[in-house]
Amino acid sequence: MTGRMGVGPERIREINSLRILHWLIDDGEATATEIAEHCGLSRTSVNAALANLHELGWITTLEAVTGTTGGRPARRYRFRAQGAVVLGADVDVHRVEVLLADLAGTALAQRSQDVEADLESSARLEVLDRLIAEALAQARVRADGVHALTVAVAGAVDDSGRTPFYTPLPQWHEVDLVTRLRASFTCPVRVGNSCKLALLAEAQHGQAVGFSDVVHILTGRRTGAAIMSQGRVIEGSAGAAGEIGGLKILRWERAIRDLTAHPRLPELEDERERIAWVVQAARDGDAEAVACMRGYARDLATGAAALVLAVDPAVLVLGGEMSLHADLWLEHFMRPLKRLVLHMPAVRVSTLGRDAVVRGAVRRAALDVRNRYFGDSLAAAPCAPPASR
Predict the structure, then answer these.
(1) CA–CA separation, 194 vs 41, rounded Å?
(2) Which residues of the chain have pLDDT under 50?
(3) For residue 33, what are the CA distances in angstroms to 62, 76, 360?
(4) Which pLDDT belongs to residue 1?
(5) From CA 378, how far away is CA 372, in angstroms rounded?
(6) Which residue, 104, 157, 178, 231, shows the most beta carbons closer than 10 Å to its own?
(7) What CATH architecture does domain 210-351 belong to?
(8) 84-198+355-386 in CATH: which number?
(9) d(CA 232, CA 243)
(10) CA dist., res. 29 & res. 33, Å (int)
(11) What angle, 0 to 180 degrees and rounded to 10, lies between the N-to-C axes of helices 9-27 and 356-374?
(12) Please, what sign has the CA dihedral across residues 123, 222, 131, 178?
């Protein structure tokens, strides 16, 4: 028998189960009473939904604890993040990194390797393949045991996973990474922009938690940006939203040149070494190195101001390599930014370090699992709990 709107009891239980599951994912553990109060459901409906979720492998029951009133201990329920395995990767100009994780982002295995900037695409792909194989072997997970996979690359990424516009990755325009990975994996595969994926990580674990309007700037040897509006990362019609770095008038293109314009800079071939030398000189109090930092900060503020004026974010997050040295330049960034914008957002420095991009790739893969297994309908967890095997 169905209800007045044609919805049967099984579908009602599924809807209740989805509602509870999404709340547990966002808010952690809770008792049945707390769930009933928050979701506006009867205890009977909650108990039926919890039994369903437990049977499907999406929740775990925690050991009962005695309440403050001294009554019977209440069981608590928690989302079971181990219900699926996801893989994230970051293919950058100077580094390739792979992270195998559960749906909460907890690492099961992690591998990385520094690479030369001019490494050709075929060799870079071989590094990616090897790191993925090593991570799977470490976690004792087969390729068909991965339930979603996301790879981050530098540059605008279109719906097919290609980089049709500029990318600093050598010979990358011809790379069809999605097709290549689908030859080894049966799960959903996507390729995304590194800045946008780093913003996803900030929204889950970092300085953008609790904010729906955010600008994220990924600093370093190249500067990139991503935008979140009303809780959604903006891709744009061709995946190019936020790609303002090529506008010379906004000064991001010259930022690293100004940073390394020290008159006594040694002849170092590697740009990373040149940046490190200036950073250390500034920490040692060298006046010219401090001036280089000031110039870099002004360059960064010019482009940041354009984004802030366009988006009006509540918070501006500074991530990437140069954010690790923000104590040397943040003050010089804030001053011109305040002069250039109408409304000054809160400015926060990322705490995620160099793993922000790969953690964002894992987050994107976890969202794909969420949409696939408990979006509009509810399916069993692909990784069943040990007791149910």
Answers:
(1) 41
(2) 1-4, 388-389
(3) 15, 10, 34
(4) 41
(5) 9
(6) 157
(7) 2-Layer Sandwich (3.30)
(8) 3.30.420.40
(9) 17
(10) 12
(11) 170
(12) negative
